[in-house]
Amino acid sequence: MAEASSSSTTTQSEKPVQPEGTYSLEQLKEHGTRESLWMLLHDKVYDVTAFIDEHPGGDEVMIEEAGRDATEAFEDVGHSDEARDMLPKMLLGDFYGEKKSKTKKSFSSNDGSTSSGGFPIWVVPVALIAAFLAWRVFLA
Fold it and tell me: Where is this region: Disordered (predicted)?
């Protein structure tokens, strides 16, 4: 009976087996250089190393997104159908595992009362109005 409980404990601590033809976040991170540049786009892993020099946006933007999920950056730019048609040639396989999102600054207030630096937004229009009134008073 003790054997059954120890084998169930071992099974629970084992990591799930990664399916063949899939790539994990750890593997993706190993290829984040100009010499070997992989990206994750829409849960698929691409080797874009050969395309670095041809990229119209320059190699810097590709290197910045290398080794991680670049889906948001890819979609934000609004790539053409031609660019999307090139992707199957660079496909390595599917992504396996959990994606960690990029860390973004969180703000304590989302009501628009402060800017990203914590500076109250309402100060700018109030200062402009005060400057205009002071100008009118002194020149009148």
Answer: 1-23
pTM: predicted TM-score of the whole model, two decimal places: 0.57
Class of the 22-96 domain? alpha beta
Q: Please give the Cα distance from 36 to 56 (Å, whole number).
A: 19
- Cα 45 to Cα 14: distance, rounded to the nearest angstrom: 25
Going from N- to C-terminal start, the domains of the chain cover 22-96
- Percent of the chain scored above 70 by pLDDT? 71
Per-residue pLDDT of 55-80, as tens digits, reads 878 878 888 888 888 888 888 878 87
Task: Please give the order of strands across the beta sheet that includes 91-95.
Answer: 22-23, 91-95, 44-47, 38-41
- Residue 53 is predicted with a pLDDT of 83
